[in-house]
Amino acid sequence: MASTGRPPPRAPTPIYISRRTRNMLAATAFIAFAVLLWQVPSLLGFALGGAALAIVLSFPARLLSRVMPRWLAILISFVLLGVLAITAFIGVLPILLDQLGALTNAIPAIAERIDRQLPRLLERSGAAGVMPLPVNEFVENAKGELLEFIQNLAHRFLGAILPFVAGAVGAAATLFGIVFIAAYLLADARKLYQMVLHASPHRYRRDVRALWNAFSFTLSRYLGGLAISLSVQGAVSAAALYVLGVPYVFLLGAWVALTALIPYLGAWLGAVPAVLLALSISLQTAVLTGILFLLIQLAESNLLTPQLQGKALDVHPVLVFLAVVLGANLAGLAGIIFAVPVLAVLHVLLEFFRARIHVTA
Hints:
By secondary structure, this protein is mainly alpha-helical. The protein has helices spanning 19-39, 42-64, 70-127, 135-166, 168-187, 189-199, 205-244, 249-259, 265-281, 283-309, 317-354. The chain has two domains: 42-187, no CATH class; 220-356, no CATH class. The chain is elongated, with a radius of gyration of 27 Å.
């Protein structure tokens, strides 16, 4: 073989450090990373958002990659997502904004109609002996509190529109960052998997592979099932409210899908505006609307979630409730939304180590 004239590559010169030094360097890096996240919390949002989007898109990308190259499957998945987002922005968002504006303008009339329905309802409650105050006194108190609540709600809606428009540019930048991270995570998923596998001790690589697969199954099943569940609940609610004659069905359906992100409490939050609007029509419509949302909640908890998510959330409901309470106290609304996926991850870790850790004497 002819010589190229280049010297052969030299092996890297080893740098020897003690185990204590290695541990100190690792601890310092971890603390520096934690401080960085504390100072710039948006980094964590970018990472979590990108990872969540990558996990959701892994479904279509994995299916399409069976019949085409993976890079093309990923590209088509993002194109389909973009088409869906543009369709929603052009076709759905204007309807929601129109209905929001119409609802804001109609709030005084709705409050007046509800005020006419309240005495009938309260008289029946008073006849049943469940009213703590005389009916007339309770009606006056309820009227004042209801009008004040509706007026404050209208002002908050109107006051939130301007900040929403002003923050559109920042939201677009955040969305771009999330999509950017998700695209690279999808494209380099195998490289990342191989990197994690090779960084693990040889004797534990089979266990690392099992843990990776467990995480992938749990998170993809949970997020994919959640997306389908939210869409179904919003669409079914809107269609049923339309049949009942309740107005602003697109806005109410979107509200139901949004509040369904919150476990347990979200179902009741989603029902409140619809029941109030139905009460402005008639007491019978309000009762039927309440029954409707009760049936939707029963179907979601007993049919939709078990079928779509299966064993991805094989956690006792009491633990889910406690996780939501803990998340709410630690991080507010974000803590409520992320409480369940974090609990699912911790459950996977617990099952993984419980089958492998053995305590010796």
